[in-house]
Queue: 2 jobs
Job 1
Amino acid sequence: MDKIVEVKNFRMTFGNKTVIKDLSFDVKKGEIFGLLGSNGSGKTTTLRALLGFYEPTSGELLINGKKYDPEDTSVTVGYLPEERGLYRKESVIDTMIYFGELKGLKNPREWSMKYLKRVKLEDKANLKLEKLSGGQQQKIQLGITIMNEPKLLILDEPTKGFDPVNRRLLMHIIDELHQKGSAIIMITHYMDEVEKLCDRAILLKDGVARAYGKISDIKKEFGGKSLDQIFVEVYGGEDEE
Amino acid sequence: MKNSPIKTVFKFETIRQLKKPSFWVAVLLMPVLFGVMFLISFVAGSENADTTPHLAEDTVIAITDKAGVLPKDNPFNKYDSEETGVEAVKKGEADLFFYIPKDFLETKKAQFYHISEGLEIFNYDGNALKMILSQYAKLKVDELDAIVLAGEYEINDNKLTATGEPSNALGKAIVPGVILVVYFVFMVLFGSRLLMTVVEEKENRISEMILTNISSKHLIIGKILSMLTLGVIQVLVMVIPMILLLAFNWNNPAISSIVSIIELDPATIAVNVVLFVASIALFAAANTMVGVVVPTARDASQYIGPIVVASVFPLYFMQAFMATEPGLIVHFLTYFPLSAPVALMLRSTFGTLTPVELAIGLVEIIIFAVIILRITIKLFQKNAINFEVVKFKQLFKR
């Protein structure tokens, strides 16, 4: 089976409001997949339902052919959520080791120190997380997400709040994981990132797929426009925020 | 191969609590407070116990007896009137002067004059008069009457059961009662800490990251076990110094009089231990649920209050629980889920719990603990990204 994620006829209703309407798509093993759309289009809701935080009103959301179970060792998942936080009163290294052990790493301390050195935070290892800046905390969260080299990496706006230097570093880390065979689902509002990194994408509006497929096919479908232009065309230049 | 997730959570939660200075302040504060209270009561007790006057050999005592209590030729009869006696005290001719008025028999009041030496809270020199009067009174009656009048004898209380066996209800209740006290200590120490640690994931917006790596069931069980261990550590830190204190004061009459009546009743002790374990499970489940349904620790306080009040409610009806025939309120509290743990332990301690009532109560506690824990685990997963208080009907939603 070459699909790591399958979403079939997914429908999600909160009270009287239907936020996702019969959505279907899949993500292949080893590809980088862009989940695109304006705020409130249903991207995060889809990811949360995929990971079992929401019970879908109808339809199926599968990872490796099954409903996601965090303790199923047949597939490893790393998730960097939109709603981010850490144990603020704990030290950087203790938090990373904790997550490393939960993810089954053999030597989480060694991995963590290597990662901290790479993101230039090795001198912060014993500091409490609350002492770190927002950007530094985000790097720690990313480290925690990728520490077990997951087969499926889900990133909800990973570059939000990053300066260009750190954004480039993050892109490099994502690319490395991709090279090692991880499938990556990425929510982002930066269309240049999508064009540069993603193999395929889906563009959502009001819980419905407006475009889906290879990046080149999507562009062809919209008369050779750039993703940025396609985004503006689908949303009619409106600002939904 | 992953480590056991429960073990990982247990280790992380336990070590980080043990590393917190606030944990040790809370742990040590209680024994220190107990120690200070014990010391104060010990000092006050020993002071109170010894009310005999401590007089120097050359202390001059004078008594003017207008009521005729003492024989006229007593050696203390030095002054004719109250005024002359007081003058003698002022001049330093007499150290202690007592005046027994003519109407002493009616008023039962005598006057005591001496030069004050400050606050003199523990000055019992005035009791010198009682000792003198008592000695003279004994001379007027025979030895037996003297013992009877002075009440200088003991009454041995030989309680019997309805079947005529020797009864030691108080002695039997001491150890089961201690188990109940330990349960209260656990409730106070363990409940709030468990609540905080459960609500922490949401408060720090970390729920999604953690629940992608571990099931809510394993996370909650790991947390509960960790908090239980910390509770045990805290209880041991409190109990060990008390045991040492007892061991070093084994010959103290106050301690030995209590120890001598203790009777170990294995059945009652076993019942209270089983009830203790089941009750902790129920209390843990209830606290965890509160932690799950609220978004912040601050919100939790308004929900945890009623649980604690309901848990300790049987104590307000202690008299009713001590009665040999349990009344309606006792029966109600025995079967109301939140008050059942304390009610059952109290009744077991006082020997009024029947085996049938115990079985029903125990099963009820276990069933409620399991149901609440199952709902809580499901809610923790589904409510991980809800940052509002969960509505009541959501608790039972599939």
Job 2
Amino acid sequence: MKKIVIAVIVMVIVGYFGRVDKEILDELDVATAVGFDYKGKNKIETTAVVPIINPDKDMSNKTISSIDNLSKESLVNLNQKSPKPVVNGKIEVALYSKKLAEVGLQDYIDYIHRDPSIGTRLLLAVVDGNVKKMLGESFKEYDTGTYIQRQINNNIENGLIPTTNFHLFLSSYYTRGMDPVLPIIELKDKKINVKGLALFKGTQMVDSLPYRYLFVFKALYENIKNAGYKLRTKEKGKTEYISIQGLQTKKKFHVKNIHTTPEITLHLKIKGYIREYTGEKVTAKTADKAEKLMKDKIHKEAVSMIKDFQRSNIDPLSFGDQTRSRTRHWDEKKWDKQYKNMKVNVKVDVMILEIGVVNGLS
Amino acid sequence: MKVSVKEQFLISPYLAFFVVHSMQIGVGVLGFQRYVAIYTEQDSWITVLVGGAAVHIVIWMMYKMLNKEQGDILSIHETTFGKWIGGIFTFLFMIYLMAMGITVLRTFIEVLQVWMFPLLSTWTFTLVYLIAVYYIIAGGFRSVVGVCFLGVVVPFYLIFTFLAPLEFANLRNLLPVWDHSIKEIALSFKTMTLSYLGFELLLVYYPFFKNPETSQKWFHYGNLFTVFLYLYLMFITLVYYTPDHLKRTIWATLAMWKIIRFPFVERFEYIGIASWAVVILPNVCLAFWAASRMAKRLFNVTQKKALLLILVITLIVNPLFKERTEIDLLNSIVSQVGLYFIYGYIPLLFFIHYLMSKVRKKV
């Protein structure tokens, strides 16, 4: 009897005082994307996208926005404008307007980093244009947040966006000898379009790369598993195009004179096959020609790209980390001084393995 | 002085493996990497190995003493310092054991509050948890050991979840190897030791082994397994985080789970943290069991009464720690005491005990 009484008392006490907020999925606004727009000094507009599943299994979106001084405030204040509590657990993308990125993302990253319910697989991107407008757009298959996430992920796996997520962004932001990069997207004809790459110094966007340089950048940044590349050539006075697909790349760093004046040699190996040619015939010669063309073009682009990075003193290709991991007692200050005038050689090898299943049309 | 325990309360020597391992693995695992990496960065895995090796030496010392004495820390203290001074030391040790249990429980609740339920009140969870703890300890040492066994086996699957972060691993983070001075290794060695604490409870439960001498082998294996686990986690952490990133991550192990995404579970940490409640159960049970056992031996009270008092104290003290800084302070005080206990006090005791037992023999 005594035991039962004690058990009942404990249950009542715990049941009454031990309650935490209940969170029922249907009664929450589960945000899938957040966006930040610059609205003057110390003022930003935060927009959250919440998918709504209609009874007829249709998907639609709603957006909630609020203008505030701080992103933390703002994201909390979204609650005030919503009939249901807004939760962050499923946020898949965080978008920042270009203007905001140029001012610096520091304050807007911190919030996401501190919130334990936001995963580190989250994608960050810079938006050229109005973020609120982009998030307000609805796409058929998925809600806006998931749609953008899927498109960027598809571009990472089968396209030209370098692998990126929140974890990698933080790593390259915190680490000496690395600078972060983020994709730039825009809304074009009611579709999301990858425009290029934003280059950061710390959390501040200082430069950007247009889309046509992304293949070379990605090849220098990581090993590409599958991508495509287009070459332009002149044949008999006519402009012809060669499309090379299934490209796989491997990069290797060699660092010379590491203790005095470092000199980096980047060795790039590219494999691929010809998929399309607008000229008359694809022969072994065409492949040779394409190899040479591609080699020259990539070499030229890579060298000028790296020169640009050095000029604006950013290190998105983590040359600093490459030397750090090869040097004992790496001196960051010395490296910072040397980086701008460091010599970087690029060596490119291109191999066209196949020319497709036909041998020309004639 | 021999301490004899009734045959039906004894446990097999091989269970030493689970008892020591489950006690060493606790809340510390969720974030030990940062405290080590502050000093040694990419060389932190060396510290893990050195720390583990040093623990083996201390274990060997403890077994030497205990084998000679065939008792527990109380009888060692009596042989070494006499009844009264020895009793005071035993009492301090008991306080340390209690503090250990309280620290583990409070830190785990902090994790719960930060990661899952910000509004969870400390005392209700403590109450519920302590009821379970009381139930287990009231079943005697054998049921505590049973929980130790489950505390190792049940959450074992979590080991494989740490393979997920390798998708974004960068092996260059480990280079250059051995880029830190001996002094830095020593500093990080100090913080690494804290993660190995928990094996010193052997001084209490030694008489509970059947043929206690034979349990030494299993005890060493248990510690070896802990070393392996820490090494495994440290390697994954180091390739996943760059050193500068790691220094800013409070719960590195937990934060690694944030990269896992399943279609049906958005946040894997929730599963991990919930499983961790099973991991820390042996910690709390064994610490409180040992504390109450010491109280019984010291003051001639029944173990149940001593245990109830300890649990009530825990229930009162636990909610008093409110902020992160306070909990951090509690952790660092308890672990500092533990550090000096195993590397200062035990070797000292070892030599004095060695001398005194020679002296007493002659007398």
